[in-house]
Design brief:
The chain is α/β, with parallel strands linked by helices and 392 residues long. It contains 13 helices and eleven strands.
């Protein structure tokens, strides 16, 4: 009786366990199970542009610290996802992009402490998001320590491939091909680590910059910001980073000053700048300017604190166009190149690290695009992914 009961249990359990083992093999073959030191070593020693894009880990903060410690760059850029298009190709010195690791001033404080313990750069570029200082977006809640690093393997990860299949992120045939041929990469590229990099070409390069993959190639039909509709709606409703506010929050401002003072005390030049908005989005913001009093106040406070900064919020000041943006508030690689060139032409601290002639050529050859092609990553071309009539 007991034996019969046990056999029935095993009859149902064995297929399930087998499927989970196949899921583990799928994740292992895509590189999702690599430890951070392992994946960074692979990225940095691969002969091509190895892209890391995970679909199961929330690891940008610690992944980039590991990458930074490996590279020990002369120049580092800090900021949110809005600075992720600054690339090593723009510089004539070693470079690393921490973009995406500093979504708030508090997170930046933790990042600064940990990065300085690993390596001290010669120059830091800091992209400022105005909403960091708006308490309606960033509640005044400061953590004493960064969130702990998560283990690379968690039991719930084994169920993720099921979600990929149901959502159409991965087809059955692709799932099977990954199991049988670990090097299979639907998105192309000589080296792709992680599900997102393998299947969509999305992820971080060895210099910390970001590849948008299928989005800029026009293979994402449900682009949420087509025609900048999503960003404009945020402005009109005062939501999701574009909350209205009259004044700078004093706690955020005080922490920001401490952050900059820490860098200055370390003897590291820090160049402050405001990343760009797409021209169409900037005009929409300008119409609502009376609801965003805190932004003008922030720039006044920076002046009073004798902090030099470069304001590229209006992208027309660097001759960028809507077609050079990924969405309403993320400038692409060409916009970022224009931004860096404008800084280098004015700032003696930046000039030694930038070949302005090469940067001018890159901009000239790729004007009107959000990115420029890297055949080591993909052979596909950029499309009019925003649906605004861009000629690519």
């Amino acid at each position: 009786m007991f034996r019969s009961y046990l056999l029935k249990i095993l009859f149902f359990l064995i297929p399930g366990i087998g499927f989970l083992l196949l899921n583990y093999l799928f994740l292992q073959n895509t590189g999702e199970m690599l430890s951070l030191p392992q994946l960074v070593h692979r990225q940095q020693t691969d002969s091509g542009s190895c892209v890391y894009g995970t679909a199961i880990h929330d690891d940008t903060f610690y992944y980039k610290l590991e990458e930074y410690a490996y590279r020990k760059p002369d120049v580092a850029v800090l900021g949110s996802s809005r600075v992720m298009q600054l690339q090593e190709d723009f510089f004539n010195s070693s470079f690393f992009n921490f973009g995406g690791s500093m979504s708030s001033i508090n997170q930046g404080e933790h990042l600064l402490s940990l990065m300085m313990a690993r390596h001290k750069p010669k120059l830091i570029l800091l992209g400022i998001d105005a909403w960091w200082f708006n308490s309606r977006f960033a509640q005044v809640k400061y953590l004493d320590h960064p969130l702990p690093i998560q283990p690379r393997f968690q039991l719930e990860h084994l169920f993720e491939p099921v979600s990929f299949l149901f959502r159409g992120k991965v087809s059955i045939s692709q799932y099977l091909r990954i199991l049988l041929h670990p090097s299979f990469s639907p998105a192309g590229g000589s080296c792709s680590i992680g599900v997102s990099a393998r299947f969509t070409g999305v992820g971080y390069g060895p210099d910390g910059s970001y590849y948008y993959g299928e989005l800029v190639e026009g293979k994402t039909p449900d682009n949420a910001d087509r025609g900048f509709s999503n960003t404009i709606n945020r402005i009109r409703t005062g939501s999701n980073r574009f909350e209205y506010g009259d004044h700078v929050d004093p706690t955020h401002w005080a922490h920001f000053l401490d952050f900059v003072n820490t860098l200055q005390t370390q003897g590291i030049p820090v160049v402050l700048f405001f990343p760009s908005l797409a021209p169409t989005v900037y005009r929409e913001m300008d119409r609502e300017r009376d609801r965003y009093g805190y932004i003008a106040e922030l720039k006044q406070l920076l002046h009073r604190a004798n902090l030099t900064f470069y304001d590229f919020e209006d992208s027309s000041t660097i001759s960028s166009t809507d077609c050079e943006f990924v969405d309403g508030f993320h400038g692409g690689a060409v916009t970022s190149a224009r931004l860096l060139l404008a800084i280098a032409e004015k700032d003696a601290r930046v000039q030694p690290y930038v070949d302005t002639h090469s940067l001018q050529q890159l901009i000239l050859q790729n004007a009107g695009r959000a990115s420029w092609s890297n055949s080591r990553v993909t052979t596909d071309h950029e499309a009019d992914f925003l649906g605004i009539g861009c000629s690519k």
